Q: What sequence folds into this?
């Protein structure tokens, strides 16, 4: 399988954070040819055909890394995820749910943008079943429960549907945090004339860095650094609505600012 340098770099960062069954699950996903083909084709549709930003392997790995950073911060703060709180699974099971969902959440972009979160569920379902049968083959109960939670994470990632678990909430926010300027670079280069939706491309190019770190008042702090004020569009129209719709909201501080100017606190 041919992978970009950026994709390989992200995979190394993710794998270095993992161990045990979670590590083996993610290695399985990274080495799966069908998943790679789907993720690559999602970008053909998104970038070349529709003129949107990255929805392929780099984006899905970036979203997964974002979600993983937040997962670690919540775990460090001893926040219990739904599987453990409801005596249905372990912390490791929750991490596996978050990573599978985030790494498959945009497969629906291989078909269309409209309602792609539902298309993603349809396309990902046989892959989810295949993964869970490999790693939970002697535990049908966990296969069934984890499958439902993974689906919740995928279908909830656009904030169009109400979700209820912290696990799914991390998928939503992890996806929303992928706003840095590199995500829209190719689309902007390919653009030859103004069109509807350009504000998303140009506002995202103003996002220099999305920092996910330990918070001062809450477990998670998201700090967005921008080069221009147009970047506030990304915060107010993309990221903030996703955080506001996420069960993880109560654990997040959100700040954004232009270099050299005052930082604005949203949460």
A:
């Amino acid at each position: 399988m041919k992978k970009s340098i950026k994709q390989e770099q992200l995979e190394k960062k993710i794998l270095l954070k993992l161990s045990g069954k979670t590590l083996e699950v993610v290695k399985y996903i990274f080495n799966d040819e069908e998943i790679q083909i789907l993720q690559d084709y999602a970008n053909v549709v998104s970038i070349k055909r529709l003129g949107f930003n990255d929805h392929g392997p780099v984006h899905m790995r970036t979203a997964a890394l974002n979600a993983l950073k937040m997962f670690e911060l919540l775990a460090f703060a001893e926040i219990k995820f739904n599987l453990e709180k409801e005596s249905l699974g372990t912390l490791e099971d929750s991490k596996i749910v978050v990573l599978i969902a985030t790494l498959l959440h945009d497969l629906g972009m291989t078909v269309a943008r409209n309602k792609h979160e539902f298309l993603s569920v349809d396309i990902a379902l046989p892959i989810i079943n295949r993964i869970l049968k490999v790693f939970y083959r002697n535990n049908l109960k966990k296969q069934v429960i984890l499958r439902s939670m993974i689906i919740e994470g995928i279908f909830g990632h656009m904030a169009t549907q109400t979700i209820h678990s912290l696990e799914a909430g991390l998928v939503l926010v992890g996806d929303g945090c992928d706003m840095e300027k590199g995500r829209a670079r190719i689309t902007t280069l390919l653009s030859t004339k103004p069109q509807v939706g350009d504000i998303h491309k140009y506002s995202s190019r103003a996002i220099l860095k999305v920092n996910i770190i330990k918070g001062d008042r809450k477990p998670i702090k998201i700090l967005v650094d921008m080069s221009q004020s147009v970047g506030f569009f990304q915060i107010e129209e993309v990221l903030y609505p996703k955080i506001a719709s996420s069960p993880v909201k109560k654990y997040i501080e959100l700040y954004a600012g232009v270099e050299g100017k005052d930082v604005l606190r949203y949460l």
Q: What stands out?
A: The chain has one domain: 5-265. The domain at 5-265 is CATH 1.10.3210 (Hypothetical protein af1432). The two ends are 42 Å apart (CA to CA).
